[in-house]
Design brief:
9 strands; mainly beta; about 35% strand; 2 helices; two-stranded antiparallel ribbon; OB fold (Dihydrolipoamide Acetyltransferase, E2P)
Length: about 120
């Protein structure tokens, strides 16, 4: 759980720094419990369309979401971080969210359907 208290703004960066972070929209095509994770989490498979394709990740979103409710939902994720080993699973993207009042993750999602792989700008 994260602290839901807003933090002060981060240090200023150049616009070029922002452009280095590749945030894309993708559709969750599979969501399964991930009991091997240290904290409650799901294993997600997300379709980012071509040329990125399907990517997998671990997401600590069990407080606000159930696996069946995630299928078909579009999410925002960073697709250009290096893969991260979580238990015996390689997480390939970072799904984005904000803390709710209890510090639990609320997913960042487009409010209208967008193309899988669409880049945030």
């Amino acid at each position: 759980m994260t602290d839901p208290t807003p933090s002060p703004p981060a240090t200023e960066i150049e616009f070029a720094d922002f452009l280095r972070v590749d945030i894309r929209a993708g559709t969750v095509v599979d969501a399964q419990p991930f009991p091997e994770a240290r904290r409650p989490a799901y294993r997600l498979r997300i379709d980012f369309g071509e040329p990125i394709g399907l990517r997998e990740t671990s997401a600590q979103i069990t407080a606000n979401y159930r696996p069946g409710d995630l299928i078909g939902r579009q999410v925002a994720a960073v697709v250009n971080f290096p893969p991260k080993q979580i238990a015996r699973f390689m997480s390939q993207v970072l799904v984005l969210g904000f803390p709710d009042r209890d510090g639990q993750v609320v997913l960042v999602t487009p409010d209208q359907p967008v193309a899988n792989g669409a880049r945030l700008y």
